[in-house]
Design brief:
An 8-stranded parallel barrel has the order 1-2-3-4-5-6-7-8, surrounded by 5 helices. The longest helix has 20 residues. The chain is an alpha/beta fold. Strand 4, helix 7 and strand 5 form a beta-alpha-beta unit. The chain starts with a helix and ends with a helix. It binds phosphoenolpyruvate and magnesium ion. Phosphoenolpyruvate binds next to strand 2 and helix 10.
Length: about 325
């Protein structure tokens, strides 16, 4: 079995009837690159840059950030590297950035919301990403977007950073792709509106589950409710992918844990997901499933799943479908 996974490591993630998708890695720091390369990931679908900030005693400066981003970009000369702007707040704190206590931190000043309050911090990061962009295929991704105004505001700040670099005659990729995480229900429901402003979506099922089902992703007492196979989540995922299909040039990926769950692969493939981003170790397993199914069959399996009433029924349907494929 392990030998089989090793054998397909460098083969494409393509179905029996020729539908190709992209399998890429989630990383928290440049050191994680090796695992992604070793397991056949063709790029990075989520670089969680907040660890750069959390592993430092002081705010990391533009040069230090740029060096980190550059090293990731250079490791994947052909593939995409999606760099997410910092997602601090919620449960993630910085010793050098004191924040007020909040009653509901996960509903509070987190990620892009904090960045809009600390614009200098966001601009430093965006300039660092732009400067690094000349070393590869950088994609910029904004987290915790809840409406289209936030996308426009983030893009305006990005444009200002580009003008600053222009004035200093510093090079960057002017065609750098800009996208957002879809991890808040309001963003998923209005994906057709947001689609007009971006180059790509990446669905963050970890937070999308938390916020859609109103279940703290870390609270064991209610973890039985936390279920990516919940029909509500499947409907949102379908809606987001459809919104991107209606907008030429836009693609949808997923970087939440669901993307690396082998039990979800047929569903996501059948719903038309284009890019699957996961922890490195999951890549070979997910690739094996994709290479052993016809896209036409995955579409049927996903369509059938959308008619089911519970997460348990969806899971049973997937398991049954996978048995039949063997
Ligand atoms: C998510 O919410 O699914 C996600 C990928 O982001 P994070 O886990 O870093 O919140
Ligand atoms: Mg998230």
């Amino acid at each position: 079995h392990l030998k089989e996974l090793e054998r397909i490591k460098d083969l494409e993630a393509i179905t029996l009837d020729g539908h190709q998708v992209e399998l890429v890695g989630n990383i928290g720091e440049p050191a994680d690159i090796q695992g992604v390369l070793k397991n056949g990931g063709t790029g990075i679908g989520l670089y969680r840059t907040e660890f750069l900030y959390m592993n430092s005693d002081t705010m990391p400066g533009e040069d230090k950030q740029m060096a980190a981003y550059r090293s990731v970009l250079e490791a994947f000369p052909d593939g995409p590297v999606i760099i997410r702007t910092m997602d601090i707040g919620g449960d993630k704190k910085l010793p050098y950035l004191p924040l007020d206590d909040e009653l509901n931190p996960f509903l509070g000043l987190r990620a892009i919301r904090l960045c809009f309050k600390e614009i200098k911090l966001l601009k430093t990061q965006l300039r660092a990403i732009l400067r690094a962009s000349v070393y590869g295929n950088a994609y910029i991704m904004f987290p915790m977007i809840s409406n289209v105004d936030e996308v426009r505001q983030a893009k305006k700040i990005l444009t200002a950073c580009m003008a600053e670099l222009d004035a200093l005659q510093i090079a960057y990729r002017k065609d750098v792709k800009v996208g957002v995480m879809i991890e808040i229900p309001s963003a998923a429901i209005t994906a057709d509106i947001i689609a007009k402003e971006v180059d790509f979506f990446s669905i963050g099922t970890n937070d999308l589950c938390q916020y859609t089902i109103a279940v703290d992703r870390m609270n064991q007492a209610v973890s039985y409710l936390y279920d990516p196979f919940n029909p509500a989540i499947l409907r949102l995922v379908k809606q987001v992918i459809q919104a991107s299909e209606n907008q030429p040039g836009l693609f949808t990926g997923m970087c939440g844990e669901m993307a690396g769950d082998p039990l979800a692969t047929l569903l996501l493939l059948g719903l038309g997901l284009h890019e699957f981003s996961m922890s490195a170790l999951s890549i070979p397993q997910v690739k094996k499933i994709i290479r052993n199914v016809r896209y036409q069959d995955a579409k049927k399996i996903a369509a059938e799943a959308l008619t089911l009433e519970t997460g348990v029924a969806v899971m049973a349907h997937v398991l049954e479908s996978m048995k039949k494929l063997k």
